[in-house]
Write a structure and sequence with these properties.
globular, 20% helix, disordered C terminus
Length: 166
């Protein structure tokens, strides 16, 4: 029996939320970025990724959360992005599923690439801060190494000719 078939598996979903970088987007207010991050020639500098800070764990991650009973994973991912970041999201390519143990239970998180739409962040008890960072700075800021691989997966979907690339 795979972890996905086990009734004890915690099912969750989320997105690697991105937007065009301010230099490639229309002018306007932007959130923080990390000026100390060294550029990575393999990373796409034309976009920024949204990371959320969860004070309960004092960590930085991609927006994600547990699915409600009967909720489709993509619907849950988009709901969690809206709840945690305040932004609507336009889903793109499905990214790798991440599996790990959380509090001794198997957890499975399905992810999608998602372009940020309209919205505004409002701090909450669950997420008190967000950051919009270039991919390399986001990779460095993420607390869990397993979340860093999702940055690479997103960038691979945006290569010329890759699915979802316009």
């Amino acid at each position: 029996m795979s972890p996905a078939d086990d009734d004890t598996t915690v099912r969750a979903a989320g997105c690697v939320l991105w937007r065009p970088a301010p230099s490639t987007a229309s002018p306007g207010p932007t959130a923080s970025s990390d000026p100390t991050a060294s550029p990575d020639p393999t990373a796409s500098s034309d976009l920024e990724l949204c990371l959320v800070h969860r004070p309960k764990y004092d960590d930085w991650s991609h927006p994600k959360g547990k699915l409600k009973p009967g909720e489709a994973p993509l619907a849950g991912a988009l709901r969690e992005v809206a709840e945690e970041t305040g932004y609507a999201a336009e889903p793109g390519a499905e990214l790798p599923t991440v599996r790990y143990l959380a509090n001794g239970r198997p957890k499975e998180v399905r992810y999608w690439a998602a372009a940020a739409g309209t919205g505004a962040f409002t701090p909450s008890d669950e997420v008190d801060r967000i950051l919009w960072l270039p991919p390399e700075a986001a990779r460095t800021r993420l607390t869990q190494p397993r979340d860093r691989a999702l940055v690479d997966a997103l960038l691979a979907t945006r290569l010329p000719g890759a699915p979802g690339e316009t």
